[in-house]
Predict the 3D structure of the following.
Amino acid sequence: MIKIPIIDLKKQIGPIRGELDAAIKKVIDNTNFILGEEVRNFEESVKKYCRVKYALGVSNGTDAIKLALVALGIKPGEGVLCPNFTYYATASSIATMGAVPVFVDIEPDTYNISAPKIEEAVKRSKNINLKAVVPVHLYGQCADIDNIVKLAQNYGLKVIEDTAQAFGAEYKGEKAGTIAECGAVSFYPGKNLGAFGDAGMVLTNSQSLAERLDILRNQGNKEKYQHVLLGYNHRMDTIQAAILQVKLKYLDAWNKKRQENAGYFDRNLEGLGIKTPLVAKYSTHIYHQYVLRLNNPSSGLIEHLRKKGIDTRVYYPVPLHLQECFTYLGYKKGDFPESEKASIETLAIPVYPDLTKEEMDYIISSIEEFLR
Ligand SMILES: Cc1ncc(COP(=O)(O)O)c(C=O)c1O
């Protein structure tokens, strides 16, 4: 039987294996495993790629958000707005540093948080000292960041762009994660640019913020054994930087292939009564996920595709306000209707760059078979 996984990293790694092996060998030969020159080189490459002044390699995307919150001066007990339809880490990084996640529903067409929805949440959250907002560029498409930043300025909120899923996407010609105070990136292995383990980055154009982030990620050190801030061990491994440096060269080509695959799905699924992803005017979409939507629960289609050997995922089956770990926040079912609906009606199908036309045709005909 045909088997199509949701992502196939072996296919991605195969053609560049020699380059990766050489980069890893060099790190082993040099033995400079923490904040070695490969980290600085990769940071320089990202600065150029993203046209941003500062890029700081960190341990993962979760820590990138947490470091950004701490560096921006957010304190325990203060409120931080974020969508409730995102990966757990967007909200956990807020909650585990003692701040209070204040959830905001999403737009039904892009699945992203919007300025009007943030404003509604600000107005109903009078009992909490709101200090920041963490919009997420979900599935590889930017949230409407200009309007979010404008609104945030009106209410005195800092903005951290959760760019975990959208590294390389562009908002009105600027790279995701470089528009607001800072952007937090994840290089989790399954991301469009993925390490061979955990890695992340914080992007910013602010010199003072970059200086604080640099100290906070490295045990509060300004100089060795001079701990000026209560920092963390949230550094990027040299070996991950070396791997990412090799892979960064291919990112645009991989993202272009994802866009072509998405276009092929868009054209061939049209008219079947299934909603393909909407691309907003202000953003490019790099299809970290290609998410389809039905007018009813997607579970039947998911099961049909499973039987056909096609792997799918629901991102995310349980919105964050209904997760057990967040019950203390006091939300209940019905509070965020759009995310609750999206969690039932959507499914992500494989869209990774190495999908063949035959595999895409098989996915399309299998979907068609179910819908007809
Ligand atoms: C939206 C979002 N935010 C944050 C993260 C956390 O990144 P990491 O897994 O690198 O900690 C992820 C991905 O895993 C994510 O998808």
